[in-house]
Amino acid sequence: MAHDPHGPGSAELHDPETDPLATYVLEPDDVRPLLARVVASPGAATHTSLAPFTGAPIAAIPLSTPDDVARAARAARAAQRLWAARPLRERTAVLSRLHDLMLERQSDVLDLIQLENGKARVSAFEEICDIALVARHYAARARRYLAPRRVGGLVPALTSVQVLRHPVGVVGIIAPWNFPLTLTIGDVLPALVAGNAVILRPDPQTALTCLWAAEQLEEAGLPEGLLQIVVGDGPTVGAAVVENVDHVSFTGSTRTGRVVAAQAGGRLVPATLELGGKNPMYVADDVDIEAVAEGAVRACFVGTGQVCVSIERIYVRTEVYDEFAAAFARRTRALRLGAGLDYRADVGSLTSAAQLATVVEHVEDAIGHGATVLAGAVHRTDLGPWFYEPTILADVPAEARLAREETFGPVVALYRVSSDDEAVAAMNDSEFGLNASIWTADTARGAALARRVHAGSVNVNEGYVATWGSVAAPQGGVGASGIGVRHGREGLWETTRLQSVAVQHGVHGLVGGRGPRIGLGRLYGLGAETWPAVFTELLRAMKAARLP
Ligand code: NAD
């Protein structure tokens, strides 16, 4: 749909005539030290990504080859052996210092995130908060999470067992472009604090942000060699990462997740897969409409809707549908859409031409199938190449692609439901199960409904920030949304391997003179028939004593 500059729509902020963004370039002297951090060979080919705000080239990033990835893995392995032997407090201290550096230097990295991703500054700030939360949490909790655990042994008092967690070794992190900091460094930190080294392969579009963060980590005290950054396309460099590591942490689409899972499975290497979503929201009949409309705007359009946990389907009770639709559309149309390295805009640009193409395709296909536009559906070429107005559709039929496929843009569909049960069934009618949101004045009702929703995280009276920001709780998907989690102790455990150590204690003289230990086979001196009878009684006694 063409832009009508006189019609209703989002306020314009970006004036290409006067905005310094139009001429915003990174100085080669600023960028060179960052680029030197990429593991690549002299004379390597380069990738130049385009700034979403303007379509102008950002910087030529050297590209790694599969041989460079193998070299990175060797260096990482050597550094990891020393790192794992260091006291845990040295590892947590790095996270603690990074927390402070992130907050102090936020404006530098906010510029980079916006430049590479195109999101509004207020959305980019979520990434700063996220790294601060994750760093603080693991700095404070890693000791507890990684502590050896004593468990009951086979023969009480005589078999003592400890369950240990060791770092896996080298963790490969493959990340998309939508959260350049959160989905890279946010996963690097737990892997490092667990005693691993990391090979990080950011998306080439957003590599500078990661390279900047690597610089900060070094300043925070991370020893050399532990974080290796490689850049290159997914099928070659991403695949080379999977080939060289002991654990894969992949974030991206379900389609690519299946490829990565198959490759990791072939190597018998575990993989954490954080994949796509088609996240639903339910608006019950007892809500404060304006508060929910405000929450829905954030849940759908933060990060220009390019957020794995953002909402793409809203089921509204018939009783409040019209009122909610009107309030939601009004607030959405009032969003300030624009470019700028400041906090004036509410919503930024899509990140690439490919992303814009998917959004346009999904919206046009839905309209072609009879959907109604309540807001947006306008490509704003006046603001930059890939700006698209936050869009609300109604009457989207089941045959439309948008009804089931992830759009990953600022587009949401509204549907009517007439009961809680119908809402739960509709929310669960998807192959995905990443995030869901339920709004009701009755929080007990919300919590009870949440348990019936097939999703890794459910937010009651919030879109996604409450679960994502509660970093002590695991965050992950079910079904086509992935396997494994990040955050919390379970997230830390993903990059560890378990080892059980059982020590069998001896009782001299008790079992005769042959050995110092109580054997777990036939006891010395007992006949072949007597030993099973004795052990049978022992098993009965253990149950009677309620031993676990
Ligand atoms: P994508 O799957 O196309 O690519 C993800 C990354 O994997 C890219 O950097 C890509 O270059 C790389 N890649 C491609 N082929 C590869 C291969 N064979 N081996 C290794 N790496 C390969 O996804 P995208 O479009 O970049 O990202 C958006 C998707 O990510 C959406 O589906 C979104 O929901 C999902 N996502 C999920 C989460 C989560 O936590 N669950 C978070 C953010 C994004």
Automatic annotation (TrEMBL):
It is an enzyme of class 1 (oxidoreductase). NCBIfam families: PRK09407.1 (NF006916). Residues 46-501 form the Aldehyde dehydrogenase domain. Pfam families: Aldedh. InterPro entries: Ald_DH/histidinol_DH, Ald_DH_C, Ald_DH_CS_GLU, Ald_DH_N, Aldehyde_DH_dom. Belongs to the aldehyde dehydrogenase family. The active site is at 274. Gene3D superfamilies: Aldehyde Dehydrogenase, Chain A, domain 1, Aldehyde Dehydrogenase, Chain A, domain 2. It comes from Cellulomonas edaphi. Keywords: Oxidoreductase. One of its GO terms (molecular function) is succinate-semialdehyde dehydrogenase (NADP+) activity. Its EC number is 1.2.1.79. This is Succinic semialdehyde dehydrogenase.
